[in-house]
Amino acid sequence: MRNIFVIAERDFKTYFTSPIAYVVLTIFILLAGFFFSLILNNMLEMSTMRAMQSAQTGQPPEPYDMPGEVSRAFLNVVSSIMLFIFPMITMALFSEEKKRGTIELLLTAPITDLQVVLGKFFAAAGFYVVLLLTTLVEMSVLYVYSSPASGPILTAYLGILLYGLAVVAIGMFISTLTENQIIAAVLSFGTVLMFMLLDAFSRRAGESAKAVLTYLSIIEHLNDFLVGIVSTSHVIYYVSLILVGLFLTYRSLDSLRWRG
Amino acid sequence: MISVENLTKRYANKTAIDGVSFQVEKGEILGFLGPNGAGKTTTMRMITGYMPASGGTIKVDGYDVAEQPLEVRKRIGYLPENPPLYTEMKVHSYLQFVGKLKGVSSSGLRDEVNRVMDLVNITDVRDRIIAKLSKGYKQRVGIAQAMLNDPPVLILDEPTIGLDPKQIHEIRDLVKGLAGNHTVVLSTHILPEVEQTCHRVIIIDHGKIVAVDTPQNLRSQIQGAARIFVEVDGPAADVLSAVKALPGVANAQIASEEGSRNRFQIESETGRDIRVDLARTLVSKGWGLLELRSENMSLEDIFIKLTTAEETVAPPVASAS
Fold this sequence. Notes:
A: 260 residues, mainly alpha, B: 321 residues, alpha/beta, Rossmann fold, Alpha-Beta Plaits, four-stranded antiparallel beta sheet, 14 strands
């Protein structure tokens, strides 16, 4: 356990000793803030229109969960921004170690490969959580000016967390495949984008293929979380994706040893 | 302390290490000598457990590298060919990280890091970022890293590469000081380094052990006839005939002529030191003796000698790989 922590601590700190953390944080915060105000404006326009409609018809406006709509739309956007951001979190995890030869230090230290893999995973996951925590600023705006239902917000965060960990695990695996950070980033981005587009492919596919493709689509599983449903099948999907990512990383390290 | 039996490493289309066996006793310093690509690094990587062997066994302190890798790794300090440095870190925080990896207790960490920094003389750069250090300092940070937690076995892949002569001297002294309590395997392609620091040498080429002996034996055995180089101020032809007339001279030839300053290369018969006679003769004839030295054979020479000698005895069989 201590060994995992030692690795995780160093890797987590590395984000902040290089410019990466600050660039990523800045871009993420700017984008998230921009989309939040955009969503807020849209919602305001919509509610004005509804008010006008009800004034015309003389009917009272239908009850409408505006803070819920805003948080749902916002967190949905956050999950999309993460698609562009996560490769920057994971690209260096192993590629940089390979390039600098420090992998030889890690793989000859009295620690197991699994501890190395988990340590690095927790470091990247930790940085992902930091990113996610910055969105609490937007959320607190919602809480200050309205009273949203907390349940769906919590499940949405749980969903985005699981989705993020899965994506990070995949990115980590891909960073073991190359010494080049850029290649690792592009490959990771492409791979996860494919997982997302499976949803689009599924519309043209036959019945059974459609079911499979939809199930595999990484974004499809997030929708239920966003509306406040925690379904075991979605949790299992993300957890198994995380485990597959970790397992592949572990195996990839092993093959790295063989190839030298 | 280290026992290697029939070690083999095969890649898809190449055999990098072919049935290498050797033992290293406790407290011994063993030198690995060989040209680039001979298999020094690969062998060391397999001892440290970085790379699995394709065949054969390696035991360190009785533990099999393949079966109990963690026990082996606890006992080994390893300096890879390229020092494994996180260049964005400061020297002392890097060493602290490695110390933690190696299981140094948190209470003893600071002292242990100070100890190794002191050993390799890098205390003055403890707060510098590794990327900003010179090659020599980086190399020594790498050595310091290997010494952390005082492992009984040290595997050092070219420890003195990139150091200036004074630093090389310091590191050699450091390594020599480790003998007795520590078992050291180091690789190099600098022959004097092996002679000065190692108790025993293994010469390795094309993945096979070519020779194992003490450095002194190896040199005299290989060198056979000593080669002497002289520079003389005198007529070339006369000098040459005078030298050839000396007892014990096997061969002599003019290496270069520059006016009256002529250089000669002289080979003596095995086991005879002709330098005293040579100098006396030249001086007594009234020629100016400008330089006289016995030429150390470079590793390349020794390799050429070794491989050609091997071939005349038994031509190598084309290995089916």
